[in-house]
Amino acid sequence: MRALVVDHAATAHLSLAEVADPVPGPGDALVRVEAVSLNHGEVRGATDPGTPAGTVIGWDAAGVVVEAAADGSGPAVGTPVVTLGAGGGWAELRAVPVTMLGVVPDGADLGAVSTVPVAGLSALHVLRRMGQLLGRRVMITGASGGVGRYAVQLAARAGAEVVAVSGNPAQEDGLRKLGAHEVVADPAHVERPVFGVLDNVGGRQLVDAFAAVQAGGMVVSVGRSSGADAVFPPGALLATAGRHDRSIHTFFLLADPAAGFSGDLAWLAAELAAGRLDPGISRRGPWTRYAEAAQALLDRRLHGKAVLEIG
């Protein structure tokens, strides 16, 4: 089969190559991949000299089951699915545990659905970690990115007053349409405290976001797109103005290898297919144009998601 593999001599450190077909385990379905979506972490990982050449990367992929799991679990042959994994997604075939795939409604746009796994699940699980959001203020940094866009929509649907942080003024109208009540360029510009923060950026934004958290609230660090460390000035982590019990948490979607995401993947795919979630696709094309899409992501020229169609 053909796959996108790490190639440190190539543009964006990726190239199309022939590789061996994956061999499914007893609880794995074999999926013919039709579309994949790109995430900053995996694209950046391909440029790491420590990533072996020939590695098939790719976290998000959607397609159709061509071989059901041998143990009888999971969907039947011919079922459209969306899949998640730590690698192996950017290929014509993917072997994936049935716990890491969700059934997709018939006729759904698989390109759009491929944006769901990392971005949609991360947003959903972080917001759940915050607990009851009805009537509470929630800040989303990096709001115009993949995770950020899903988080704005899901938080608004949960009844939160959403503060979206985006450094691009052109994104304001779009973020308000997604459900943001307030759009600012920097967390330091927020005038009223927030209960929760989903931070995609790290660095100075994480520090300023924490300063905006009310008593009993939390920051959940999902990403570090700024590439900078969060350096807190002396005393910044102590409660100020009566704001006690604030906390900072880290988040990694695949922290628990035994965790299953089938139900959440299926729900997110169904919501997207019904038009109740906007995937925010800003670039879409054949996978032969992978280098352009990957470079746009690395250069911060991409707002929303990039989708590559396999064929």
Automatic annotation (TrEMBL):
SMART domains linked to this entry: PKS_ER
Keywords on record: NADP, Oxidoreductase
Organism domain of life: Bacteria
Domain (Enoyl reductase (ER)): residue spans on this chain: 9-308
Record-linked InterPro entries: ADH-like_C, ADH-like_N, ER, GroES-like_sf, NAD(P)-bd_dom_sf
GO molecular function: NADPH binding; oxidoreductase activity, acting on NAD(P)H
The protein's name in its UniProt record: NADPH:quinone reductase
